[in-house]
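Why does residue order matter? Because the sequence determines the fold. Keep that principle in mind as you read this record.
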Amino acid sequence: MEKLLAEVAAELVAKARPARDYLTLRATCDNGYTSERVSSGPSDDHVRVRHLESLGALGADGNVVVEMRVDPNGAFTALLTDGIDQNTGYLPPTYGIVLEPRPRHLFAPYERTEVQSVGPLAAVEAELGVPLPPEVHELYLSGVTEFGDHTLLPADEILGVRRELLDLEELLSHSQNGWAELIPYAGPRDAVQLVGYHPLWVPIVRYTSGVALCVDLAPGPQGRVGQVIEPALACYPLRLLAGSVTEWHQSPERQNPPGMKAHYSAADHDVAEVARRFRTLRELVLHELGDVDLAPLASLASLRDLQVSGGRLRLGGLAGLPLERLHVTATDIDLPALEHLTSLTVSGARVDLPTLPKLRVLDVSHADVDCESLPQVDRLVLNADQWRHCKACPAAATLVGERSLAQALDWAESLSVVLPRRSVSG
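Structure:
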């Protein structure tokens, strides 16, 4: 390891000239993936350095998180660990630990039955324990394999693709960042369960982009068993395409989803005008609002994600909205009890938290709160002083504002997470 770190130090010195008093390198390396950030001395001043090729070898055998001081002559001291997430998108970095993995979504159990059928989909039904609609069987018995820009997934590949999609959802369950992700959705309210991937979504088409089309056997309260959906992936939202395979088969053209997000500053539009113009918005970003009552937004009945910044922001009129994610930066706010809210970030203001029954992710690291009475959530983001007074026990914890990896490891240990430390000099 000393030789590998010496190579990193030498490359850093060569690429970061002219020399400074010393450089601080923070990096994460994992099986070929690397990310790094270089700052000048103990400051948060970013130093532009071309990608360090030598970093790849550090994580050849698994995840390595490193903080490294490098002098102009190439001498270095480094601290290495794993099991902690070091996010250097901004400096100072944030550090995250997972105390107990959480799934992004909890699925209601369903009653399995012994489905006895014949034909190409018999094995699929046996695995699911749920029958597929007759029109799906008819489609696979028809001999049609291509229509529109679709190619029907062979029956013997359905379970493999389903397992791949379930494994991806399981992988996200072990990432604290995955818990905070809102599933983008384009379709009628409550027609589809807003999850990343459900065990009773049966893929029948797969594109090279990774997007799949599925028969939905577990619809939302306003949906239909057998409806055709497109699960969310990357920039694609979850979409309801048709009420059945027959409807979809008759009109298989892929259409672009309707606009879902709007982004405005106060110079562009006032709040009332935005509410009038965009009745079906699901995501909205409003900046530089000053002192504003946001009650006009109550007419946006589909709004799920709201980001606002300003002075004194009055949000009490939004209590009836189906908001799931809220990000507020303000000097003063009044926060209503939001029944559907799962993720909340508050910055700049004193906030008294109301009852938020579905809250899973809370970030008040830049707010003034009573840390001794914070609610139990899956993921909690606080600064170092707040953590010292916090009594909550989240499943994942994030530390904001700490510049030292050693101090971050001390913080993790205070939460009963003891991570390895290896110091190397050369």
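Residues 162 and 345 are 34 Å apart (CA to CA).
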